[in-house]
Design a protein that fits this description.
single chain; mainly beta; six-stranded antiparallel sheet; five-stranded antiparallel sheet; 3 helices; 13 strands; globular; binds dtdp-4-keto-L-rhamnose; isomerase; dTDP-4-dehydrorhamnose 3,5-epimerase; RmlC-like
Length: 181
């Protein structure tokens, strides 16, 4: 398991070792000792799985009082995954990183607490899995508009009219409205 820095150094790109053979492949997706070796001492309490069709966009989501760290990967299909630093006093507040995660490239992201997260599905369908360091607290959940003009996230080549977005996400406030910045 290789753990690399991204443009936002607290967000890590994880490259599992993939053992392929005539049956298929094997990989470890989470190894506490490997994470700890890189200074990541995390305690996961919830595992999530979502299935989405092409051009579904989920996000951007975070929890305010009980921020969740997330280890995310794709077990079928391909997504453009985005993490946004929303830690108020961070020098990189409002900066984001995007990474293409797929069942082919085996890439995973570690998104620490204090980041908003979202993804767009690039394949016909995508199975998205993630481990969380805090339980889901619906009242604590916050959403930021996916096409916020301050963030200006590059979601790739897509007609916004073709995106499939929940009502909650479509009505999410801007970064400015959320943080009064
Ligand atoms: C996230 C979540 C949702 N739910 C329920 C609430 C709701 O009825 C239904 C669908 O919820 P949502 O529409 O919020 O699902 P979704 O838009 O997939 O939410 C997820 O988006 C990605 C981008 C994240 O980063 C996640 O942390 C999570 O916020 O599932 C749970 O029971 N537990 C959970 O942990």
């Amino acid at each position: 398991m290789e753990i690399r820095d991204t443009a936002l150094s607290d967000v890590k790109l994880i490259l599992p070792r993939v053992f392929g053979d005539s049956r298929g492949f094997f990989k470890e997706v989470w190894n506490q000792r490997e994470f700890a070796r890189h200074g990541l001492n995390v305690n996961f309490v919830q595992d999530n799985f979502s299935r989405s069709c092409r051009n579904t966009l989920r996000g951007l989501h975070f929890q305010e009082a009980k921020p969740q760290g997330k280890l995310v990967w794709v077990s079928r299909g391909e997504v453009c995954d985005v993490a946004v630093d929303v830690r108020r006093n961070s020098p990189t507040f409002g900066k984001w990183v995007a990474e293409c995660l797929s069942c082919e490239n085996h890439r995973m992201l570690w998104i620490p607490p204090g980041f908003a997260h979202g993804f767009r599905v690039l394949s016909d369908e995508a199975d998205f899995q993630y481990k969380c360091t805090e339980f889901y607290v619906p009242d604590d959940e916050r959403c930021i508009r996916w096409n916020d003009e301050t963030l200006a996230i590059d979601w790739g080549d897509v007609d916004p009219a073709e995106l499939i977005i929940s009502e909650k996400d479509a009505n999410a406030p801007s970064l400015k409205a959320m943080f009064e910045v």
